[in-house]
What does this fold into?
Amino acid sequence: MFGRFKRKDDEGSDLAEALGETDDSNDHDAEVSDELDEASDYEDDLDEWERLDASRDWREDGPFDISEVDLDADEVERLDFGCVVLTPFEGMQMQLQVDQRTKKVQAALAMAGPSAIEIALFAAPAQTSMVAEIRDEMIAATQKAGGKVTLAAGPFGTEVRRVIPMTDPKGNRVFHVSRTWFAEGPRWLLRGVVMGEAGQASGIEGVSELLYEFFSNSVVRRDQQPRVPGDLIPMTLPSSMAAPVPGSQRDDHPGA
It folds into this structure.
């Protein structure tokens, strides 16, 4: 795990606490009261899962923004995909999802035995969260496909658990079971779709532990290019990896 730098807004909070020990004016008290009322009204508008997502900093132990870590502080070997830096684990196998039209890497699939996690990065708003909207889209899409979706408290806030009926190449009816994690940072949203045995499990112990650590250790290096929230941010193939074989193309949307 990486150590986490103290955020600038945390430093500002410490300063505010120090200033709070001085005598405040009545006008200031009134302003604070108004702000608390507005915050209360905002919380009333949130549903149970939005309140869970807003209840704490779910990225305290990662995934990290590049501004929050020093990658040169250790000698850990990592895979640099440009917009995302990933830390491989022992025995890991990896496949890359490539857009056959643009030849750009859309997602990285890390496999640990019978379990796997697919990681993809998307642009996000600077000031607001888009997770609730994506969650609603996932629920609607799953129900339209005849599947089942449930929400649960996960390691990164609200976890989306889905069971979607599919047909295999032999025409047999099968079910795709997954858990989806979201982590939001400065103008980015990292999605992790957990599949296989870990996709059917609960929590982060056992078969899920390696994939949880892998997702947590991700470091996002979002570029400064203006992007529409929800747009996929393509990855760059690391020089240490051979050219990927184009895989099955997924919908390049965080709610896919």
Remarks:
- The helical segments are 8-19, 26-45, 48-54, 131-144, 197-200, 209-216.
- Confidence is low (pLDDT under 50) at residues 2-44, 244-250.
- The first strand starts at residue 64 and ends at 65.
